[in-house]
Model the fold of this input.
Amino acid sequence: MHRNPITLEALEVIDAIDRRGSFAKAAEELNKATSALSYTVQKLEEQLDVTLFQRQGRRSVLTQAGTLLLDEGREILHATALLADKTREIATGWEPRLRIAIESIMDYPAFFEQLNLFLQQHPSIEIDIVESVLEGGWDALEHGRVDLVVGAPGPVPQQKGFRTLPIGIGDMTPVIASSHPLAAIAKDPDALQQAIVDVRRIITHDTTSTNVARTSGLVDGRERLYVQTMDQKIAAISSGLGVGHLPRKRIQPLLDNGTLTELHLYVASADEGPNRKFAGNNSELYLAWNLSHKGRALKTLTQQLHKVMQSQ
Done:
């Protein structure tokens, strides 16, 4: 039986070249000589009798065969990394690595303050953090891309094997740049109801990759501008590009210094009287993880975060 020429080392090399765009940058990341990477790729191409990379300007781009190899190969790399983690976890009870998705509306300084306290006690644990939006955190948790979601928005998906702890309500506030013409009628809800239809909505992409993406907030305008992160949304609205809901805790300094103006929009309801409420976009937020995850690191960090966040 012929020996399989596709090794983990070769997959790691191809993955790094694809992500970094060149052999030289990949070699820098892997702490290897460029010639060593070239030899690994050349040897694999000869054994498979295919071409994996082609030059496009200064970039090294995968061929169709190379793309197929890497797509399947990344699944193998992910599986072997999980296997190594589980092996170490069985020996100690503590996971060597935690992958965390933090919802884009969360108070980042407060989260990282608690993470710092956790790592002071457990400095050897590696932390990998990504930002999630709406269904993205639930999706990443369901498909094993993260171990914990911080600030996952309700409602909690049912029959998915999730464990959750409530950590409060997300305070989302409709705002616009103070330099925008609409800011002149920000405190006139009746005028706003008519004028806001023609103002561009700034919307953050839902980060789900397999579940049905959802939207939230002011999404019924004629014009829309989509961004990838909450920081981009804050910057876009602050520059006058349009209107949207932003997390109050993250934008309070911009409200205080006059960069942003809060919009006094009515809540959609049957109550048309003087006690009619102004609109926010608030939902219950959760810490969420899979019931099957029994590691001590996840348990310790989750308890710490819950204790602090539910009291804020």
